[in-house]
Fold each of these.
Amino acid sequence: MRHTLDRDLTADLKTSAEFVVIGSGAGGGVVAQVLAAAGRDVILLEAGPWYEGSDYSNDFWDSMKQLYWDKGLRAMRGRSMIPTMQARCVGGTTTVNSSICFRLPDYVYREWHDPFGLTEYTAEQLEPSFDRTGAFTNIHPTDRELLGRFDLLFESGFAKLGYGSKPIQRNVRGCNGCGLCNQGCPFDAHMGTDRTYVPSAVEHGCRLYANSPVERVLVRGDQVHGVSGTVRDATSGKPKHRFAITAKVVILAGGSMANPVIWKNSGLPDPHGVVGRHLTNHPGIGITSVFPGCTDIGISVPQGFESSDLRSERMMFETLGMPPEVAAVRMPGWGGTYKDLMSRYHNMAMWGVMVRARGEGYVAKGLGSSPKIVYHLHDDDLRLMARALRLITEVAFEAGAEYVIPGVRGVPKVLRTLKEADALLSHPLHPRDMMMIGNHPLGTMRMGDDPSISVVDANAEAHLVKNLHVMDGSIFPTNLGVNPMWSIMAFADYNANKLLTRY
Amino acid sequence: MNQSIEARERRAADEQAESLHFVSRGAIRILCAIADSMFPPDHVAEAQRRAPLSWRSDDERDPLPPAVLPAPRHDHVARYFDNWLAENSWPVRTFIRLFWLIFELSPLFFVFRLRRFSSLDPDGRIDYLNAWGDHWFYWCRMASTLLKSQVAMAYFADPVVRSKFRVPPSPLAGREFLKWRGRDE
């Protein structure tokens, strides 16, 4: 575990800084670096520890409890329980994702112009920020040498149906394709903010306190005054000291799940009830297909190929490597037949579709330390998922799959022909019939010019609390249809540079 | 066959219970019975195989036989769950134990058998587990999925299983990893 200032504390901490940044993920890590590199006095606070590659285990449960909030068991309630995972460590979820990077699609900028008044944000305006963050984190297309055969089968299947696909752009340096991205990169090849922006910020004098979750943002009148919280022991998680930091500017970048809870714990104003509302995400669902021959699953880049041809129809297809523990949950049944299915693990390919869902939800204070997360899928989203599953099943058969395991209740558990897959379209689907995962929670502190529908203005400053800024994915007014990490970093870079001129 | 499996599970439970802190003898039997129902020894699996899946090895690039899935080691499963329970707070531990108890005592309501789950024969166990997994009530299906996920994590955390199953036993560095994959041979 890397050394951070919280471990030197012998008593409660009372200090001050010009800027306090809460959260060190795609938003906070970038903001802290931009400010520190400009010579500003910055404190960066992170709830989790700062790990090194040698700290990670490839035991699935060990990594879940080490790296994720609620030991990886967090779920969104609603029409069904949808698991959603957020990392709890320096770098946030940039530390333990599949490193997928996309620029923000043009249609998203256009969608934000009218209803939210965000005319300032255009592809041209943000391009320098995308270029800077892309260069800093070494974003580039996945090297073909690192792809597994399941990626190449994905490519050939889509090509046979007339769709394009290509290697995914990833922020890695020296990746050897070990497949452990979601359990923490043991080789430090993953260029999350924990390996890029945060070390750079610390080099430029930023004071980093890890294991220090913020509980309240302190306000005097209508102006932010500082933050307070508890420093916890890095291994046991037990409270050690209290901290209170006064600051001229506070930047909230704890993510879509944490920001609304901090806001409400702090008693900050929310007359229109918009804080925590409009939670969006990209629900993901996948199929497992079995091919003759080894597919390299579990021993190559977990997500190396994508097809964006149907992005305009709100669907985005990506390959998805998985460890045997995850495959084991997706296999239907028990006993001998189940064991037969699992014995084909090395022949499996899992391909997923990420839907740009219309459904919305909210985040509120929950019991204990976990937030209450509610999300309702729209019926259109279900129809879209059924269509996407049918299409990707067709892709699998085109690529030569022996059989496909759709993981959907009410349709055959093992599909041997494409005709059987038609049941996906004819069967009325319910969210509880499918094994989904909620990816990329966004939008709980959304940005806009109208305080009745948004929390922060176009400068990412709270409408009702001066000098309190929000700079992470929670400000995006809608979901994006693509993985949001690069967009969050670029927006943080753009808005952090605005802070330098303003303060 | 049923008696030998049950005797094996009971023996393992007795041996392990002495050294464990959070998992009781009864819980070990339940968890080992679930693990045995997921990854049964070969002779049991053979008898249970109801719809054999085709196996083609005509891929010229890389013909690959099915992976070896050894029978679960009960002592490992018991120790894994003991550690896992130790990491949860007492209310969560109580809830989990209560669920295991309900699961153990409910065959009557799912497969109309007046026996405990761990006392059912292997086929009866499969029927019971399938009844949970295919139940109309969402929370039964969810509980079944969670059980499967927990037992799978325990099973694949065993280094013996990982080695026989041909997944990397630990993160291997650089060229060593590529060699393991057979990429630079």
Amino acid sequence: MGSLLDSLLVLVLVLNLYALGTSRIAVVIRVVALQGFVLAALPLLAHGEIGAESVIISVAAVALKAVIIPMMLFRALRDVQIRREVEPLISTGASMLLGGLGAALALAFAKNLPLTAHDGHSLIVPAALATVLAGFLLLTTRLKAISQVLGYLVLENGIFIFGLVLVDAVPLVVEIGALLDLVVAIFVMGILLGHIRREFSSIDTRALSALKED
Amino acid sequence: MALALVLIPALGAAAALLYRDNHRRPWLLVAVAVLHLALTVAVLFGAIPAPDTAWLWLDPPGRLVLGLVSVLFLASAIYAVGYLRYRAERNNAVFVAALSALLTALTIAVLSRHLGVMWVAVELAALVSAPLIYFNRNKRSIEATWKYLLVGSVGVAIALLGTFFIAYAAVHGGAEPSLRLDDLATTAPTLSRPWLRAGFVLVLVGYGTKMGLAPMHTWKPDAYGEAPGLAGALFAGGVTSAAFLAILRVLRVCNAAGEGAYASSLLLGLGLFSMAIAGALLIGQRDVKRMLAYSSVEHMGILAIGVSLGGVGTFGAMLHLLANGLTKGVLFLSAANLHRGYQSRFTTDVSGALRGMPVSATLFLLGFFAITGAPPFGPFVSELTIARAAFLGDQPLTGALFLLFLLVVFIGMGQTVLKLCFGDGPGPTTTWRDRVATTAPIFALLALVLMLGTLIPEPLSALLHENVTWLEVHP
């Protein structure tokens, strides 16, 4: 099962780069949904045997990360009526390059991490770190509020991957609680997106600059 | 029985959403607060056994914060009755429900025995705070809520990664992996050091964002500036204390693992940096609520410095946790009165408040003296204790910088407060007047701050000492 797990993790990394390299927001939502779907399969593969706990986490992850959250984001996107990210702080090509560099560094760095023998052979930890980095990149370089929400989601996906090495230590309630918190956070952000759009006639975060020191 | 501490505010939140009467709804908050405080007192004095389950219990710092949160919530609840009566044109169902839910989340965070449960509770507190900041529904409050949500969510996400790193430290150490705080402290010597260190850094950054330690404080002036004053009081006294509690609990694990020196040096650095940044931004500040936000950044720095010094410093920090929380209640609520009375929070519009609104302005002025460390108030004793710990602990540079920053903050805040209270501006411009509901809770909080500065009751003093021994575990 190890090779299948690693192939899926490589797919997750490729999706990170895809999300970083495109400016069409609807495409990024689809990419993040697909990433959520791939992630949901991982708990079933990470431990050699399939227990009830990993099944519950998988089902919850598919339902929330691959279905409910993308649907909420598509609804928000329809409400705010924008199609693509314009003028990101750094070009999509450059952010893709940075994402790739981050993944390479994470892979190299993971060799030096003190991992247990079992985890040392899989891509879980480097993939988690690379995904967290990709999320940070999306968060900091995109200017549309909805793109920043997507960056936050990718960041959370990275943390979810890291959670795979921990199924024994982190109880089910906490995993599910973290997933539910994520849904509520996206829900609240989605509502707020609509309000931002109504008040400012755009969801460009550069419009959100009234509050500062003079 | 003690679990009713969590259930009562949760039911209160549900009731607030179902109850139709906009005028009487705020009284739900008072009912919740009174029951919560009664239970808290019963638990703290041992009349009711504290919860003792796998996930919830009550550790020594939890006792301190539970009392603080409960008292602050009662003060804010009484204030809310007066405030929401004035703003009767607005539907307050979501606001009241969110306040009650915030108390639920804070109580779970205080009672948690498990790092994961703690994390879920802090995240929940962050989410239910969003409608509180957004209460005024204008451009500025949207901007503040958005920044708060995004920065706060990323912050707690980092805290979750840190929690996972600590869990991995346990997995790698080969011990029975567990995120229960007492298990972690017992097995601490076997934890993998690099993962524990990295985990502490992430936890410090993550929960430090919620606390508002610089440089993760950027959301704070915006959120505190736009939120109604009573929400600000709960954020600055309650939410920040819960986040600090999370850091303390992980610090204890680090201490038990023999990594205390490393963790303390990080806390000391962030603490001094927070005080410096706050001091710089307080000079010439014209917005009263943003001034209070930077003051909160400063005091989070003081807490970090206090625990980093250990021993006497920890005693001072734990006392300061109470003193700062209660004084912030005085300041935010009285500033909210002035804001309502003058319809402005800027010193350019408000002056001569001592004549215009004598009660609130006097309370605000006394609160200012208290928070900047003037005797005979609580923060004076706690700040002096921390300074003493620095000089006694052979860290004269830390002590000197600490005193210097306190002085800068005093001067910076002083300018703003003096302009506001004295001067010959016109009187209040709205129909808001000081009433019993909106001043009595402030008097009560101020009396407690005064008590902390003059005579610390014996049980409290014992609890503070218990906190010091709790934190200072050695491998």
